[in-house]
Design goal:
Blueprint: E1 3-9, H1 16-23, E2 29-34, H2 41-47, E3 51-54, H3 60-73, E4 78-81, E5 86-87, H4 92-101, E6 106-113, H5 118-134, E7 144-146, H6 147-153, H7 163-172, E8 177-186, H8 189-194, H9 196-211, H10 216-223
Parallel strand pairs: 1-2, 1-4, 2-3, 6-8
Antiparallel strand pairs: 4-7, 5-8, 6-7
């Protein structure tokens, strides 16, 4: 199994070196896709040992698509999409290989929140419930896919938001989705800055409106509230 990690970044000079250093042992190739950072993100990512490529324009969906194309051209069998503020659990690679060695075409991890207050720990239980029931791990849960399944479903699309949900909905049509019980740890900064209840409620509202057919471009203004 040749595993490539694709990491989209934008203005992440404070986290990118640690993110790259933490991710490198899990993969054969690490591609950082910059969305137009004006700080030292690109320089620090290269210094930490990542291959860095610039997306044609900002947008996480386009960044992920750009990095995936590069990884596939380099011969990757498995693609793992990792946010710069998310850390993989120990033996993540082995867990992915076992998952894809069965019938699964892709999946993600359960999530934990770094330095989480009690209310956010309750939120984690809701995320676990959603993930297990719907088989829909999202971007901060380290989504992964077999290269062939990624190509068949069309990969990531250039959406302003919800690129992770859109991708997983289409990937799920290709076969079973594996939920790895080990936890990827993601930053709780967005929840703490905006408020846990407000952020969770707005997220769920956006997902429900998307499921009802509202276009992501119409929902982008709502998403700005929780970014």
């Amino acid at each position: 199994m040749r595993l490539a990690i694709v990491m989209p970044v934008l203005e992440e000079e404070g986290t990118v070196q640690a993110a790259v250093s933490d991710a490198r042992p899990h993969c054969d190739e690490l591609i950082v896709v910059d969305g137009g950072s004006r700080d030292r993100t690109v320089e620090l990512a290269r210094r930490a040992g990542a291959t860095v490529v610039a997306a044609p324009r900002p947008g996480r969906g386009l960044q992920l698509r750009t990095g995936a194309a590069m990884a596939l051209d380099a011969g990757a069998d498995v693609l793992l999409f990792l946010h710069a503020d998310t850390r993989l659990p120990v033996s993540a690679r082995d867990a992915i290989e076992r998952a894809l060695g069965g019938r699964a075409v892709g999946g993600g991890f359960l999530v934990d929140f770094e330095a989480a207050p009690p209310l956010l720990r309750l939120g984690r239980r809701l995320v676990d419930l959603r993930t297990r029931r719907l088989r829909m791990p999202l971007g901060d849960q380290a989504q992964f896919a077999a290269a062939a399944a990624y190509a068949r479903c069309g990969g990531f699309t250039d959406l302003p938001i919800l690129e992770d949900l859109d991708f997983m909905r289409r990937l799920r049509r290709q076969g079973p989705i594996s939920i790895i019980s080990r936890r990827a740890t993601t930053s709780s900064r967005r929840f703490l800055e905006r408020g846990v209840v407000r952020t969770v409620a707005t997220n769920w509202l956006i997902w429900l409106l998307f499921a009802a057919g509202v276009a992501p471009r119409r929902l982008a203004s709502l998403y700005a509230v929780v970014r």
